[in-house]
Amino acid sequence: MLLVTGACGYIGSHFMHYYLAQAANRDQSLVAIDNLLLGHKESISPDIESRVHFYQCDIGDKKALGEILQKHSVHAVVHFAASAYVGESQEKPFKYFDNNVFQSLSFFESLLMAGVRKVVFSSTCATYGMPVRTPMDENHPQSPINTYGVTKLMVEEALRALALASGLSYVLLRYFNAAGASPSGLVGESHAHETHLIPLALAAALGGGEPLKIFGNDYDTPDGTCIRDYVHVDDLAAAHLLALKLFERDKMPEKATLADSNGLGAAFNLGTARGVSVMEVLKTIESVAGLAVPFSFASRRAGDPSRLFADAGRANNVLGWQPRYGLSDIVETALHWEKHRRY
Ligand code: UDP
Predict the structure, then answer these.
(1) Which candidate among 8, 28, 162, 236 keeps its CA 20 to 30 Å from the CA of 216?
(2) 343 with 252: CB under 8 angstroms?
(3) Does 189 reside within a domain?
(4) Which of 278, 280, 293, 306 to mutate to test the pocket of ligand 1 (most atoms within 8 A of CB)?
């Protein structure tokens, strides 16, 4: 059985729904862990409730993990649980070292003690830091510029070490800008303190939020606003399922190996390879929703690179992954969620 951590968070909840919907066996279930500090139990909607063995606990709770792993025969793990606010990671670095690094290390120890050796890990393009070239491929230097990115890189390194020391197999998925919501309307993005562009822009357009502040219009980009690579959260979910299939092979395929990992692990960028500016996002909202986004220009946000977009060729070649959704779909599904959100 599959174990999912952070199962009630934004990406975890979409993966949980996607995984269960794709299962050939309609009785297929999974084990879900979330401490519910930021996650939403409501994401386990009535249609999937009977197929989710849910545990409210920290991933670093060795006693709870020991019991869960004894009760369920877990063959692989998708590890989403993490603190994921860049700004907060600068203000409270030790919270991020604790939640993202120490808790993960304790979790991996619990896994290894129970003989579980297959891990798909939620990583991020924030591990690369300032781009020295775009699009960014997986061999781009990793030099993060905030604590969040550092902690994700530390866990990547820990997995690499555990692959060499303990025979663990891992897949690192480095997300670019996750966005959108499930077309089912059952799950979507719901952060207590929203900082992301698309939900804030939609809230402003719908009149439920402050006018959007655009952080900088003097960047070296065609319209002066930052360029990002927005990838639909269900496309991310699909990539995790394909990553799990890699474990069915004896060894990671040659093309996917990291230079220093003895073929035990692989990293993949997940993005659309299409860079979109903040102003282009606003125009898409206007055309899809027929709503103007009230905005004003503000100063640059610290640590924002002018352009970030992925070379996702490896995910395409090795995993057979291809994003199905474009920016209009992202805006449409996010808008539907914003209007009819369940939580
Ligand atoms: N952004 C903005 N105003 C906001 C939030 C975000 O102008 O209120 C910009 C931000 O500077 C970046 C892009 O939108 O260029 C995406 O930011 P987001 O926080 O969604 O994701 P990030 O790229 O930081 O992971």
Answers:
(1) 236
(2) no
(3) no
(4) 278
Among protein residues, the one with the nearest Cα to ligand 1's atom 6 is: 197
pLDDT digits (tens, 9 = 90+) for 235-278: 999 999 999 998 887 555 544 444 334 455 789 999 999 999 99
The pTM for the full model equals: 0.95
Task: Confirm whether 263 is domain-assigned.
Answer: yes
Distances (CA, A) of 68 to 28, 49, 222: 18, 18, 52
Residue closest by Cα to atom 1 of ligand 1: 197
Shortest-distance atom of ligand 1 to CA 300: 11
Token pair recorded at residue 237: 């979910």
Bridge partners of residue 4, in order along the sequence: 32, 78
- Reported as type and span, the H/E element at residue 172 is strand 169-175
Tens of pLDDT, residue by residue over 130-182, are 999 999 999 999 999 999 999 999 999 999 999 888 889 899 999 999 999 99
Q: What is the CA radius of gyration of the chain?
A: 19
Whether residue 185 is contained in a domain is answered as no
Token pair belonging to 222: 């065609």
Which residue CA neighbors atom 18 of ligand 1 most closely?
196
250-252-254-257 Cα dihedral, nearest 10 degrees: -150
State which ligand 1 atom lies nearest to the alpha carbon of 304: 11
Active site residue 343: no
Q: Which of 148, 219, 230, 325 is catalytic?
A: 148
